[in-house]
Amino acid sequence: MKKVIVFGGNGQLAQCLKKTGSKQLDLVYFSSDDVNILEESHLKEVFKTHAPDIVINCAAYTAVDLAEDEPLKAAAVNAQAPEAIAHLCAQYDALLIHVSTDFVFDGNAAHPLDESEAPNPINTYGKTKLLGEEAIIRNWDKHIIIRTSWLYSEFGNNFLKTMIRLGKERDELGVIYDQVGSPTYAIDLAELIIKLAEAEITTYGLFHYSNEGTASWYDFAHAIFKSTGLSVRLRPMRTSEYPTKATRPAYSVMDKSKIKEAFKITIAHWQDSLDRCINNLPV
């Protein structure tokens, strides 16, 4: 049985990995309470104790606006820690599966972005995540970096749960309609990661993964309220009407052809996955 260690053990994606599970993998989860990934000595002890075959790095600094005020902290978690993890994976000959983001792009494209597109992040979060990708690529060949977008699930804090909470509190909501991407059910991503970990991987590199289809945040909110039966009047808003400290990419739809071909997978449409997620929400 393959020994797998997962960093970011209390996060949304790790909770989805726990829910998905595997009979073929010995999965051990580490939260920030268990190990400080910013301390190389802590990482070394984890690797020495568990001698992993695979490492799944779900740990990330994801507070996009706060990252503008805490760039060094964001860089430590999103860039320096992945580099240290990659070094240790190389020492132990462990496959590294690392999760990245659509925010490495500037949002100026008018076509689905594939892995050959030049990144150009426009906020600190995106810049630090790109540095993490580059550090892994530079230090260890046996890696699978998965860029994903607009993650939500029944776990953690996310747009779906925020909309449901606000929809129960308010009769009307304004939601941005000029940012477009692909909502991604974190359970779908977790199932893919488990599948990759269970397989005998010989194809490495950078891949894009999100659910199929495109939506604005307004479209996503509309689908959430329709699926949950909440009666909310939605008002479409421009990004300029809702200023944030960090600039968001206006367009971050990704082309998933590479990952579908490499690993022979099919990907669900975001609306179908949204319905599945809502059915899994606690009553």
Description:
By secondary structure, the chain is an alpha/beta fold. The chain has a single domain, classed as Rossmann fold, CATH 3.40.50.720. It is 40% helix and 18% strand. It contains nine helices and twelve strands. The chain has helices spanning 12-20, 40-50, 71-92, 124-139, 159-169, 186-198, 217-228, 257-263, 270-280, and strands spanning 2-7, 25-30, 54-57, 95-101, 143-148, 151-152, 172-176, 180-181, 184-185, 205-208, 215-216, 233-237. The strands form four sheets. A six-stranded parallel β-sheet has the order 2-1-3-4-5-10, with helices on both faces. Helix 1 (12-20) links the parallel strand 1 and strand 2 (25-30). Helix 3 (71-92) runs parallel beside helix 4, helix 5 (159-169) crosses helix 7 (217-228) and helix 7 crosses helix 9. The radius of gyration is 19 Å and the shape is globular. The two termini are 36 Å apart.
Which architecture would the CATH scheme give at its second level?
A: 3-Layer(aba) Sandwich
**Quaternary arrangement of the chains shown?**
single chain
The spatial strand order of the largest sheet comes to 2-1-3-4-5-10
Counted by DSSP, the helix tally is: 9
What string, H for helix and E for strand, traces the elements in order?
EHEHEHEHEEHEEEHEEHEHH
The whole-number mean of residue pLDDT values reads: 96
Low-confidence stretches: none
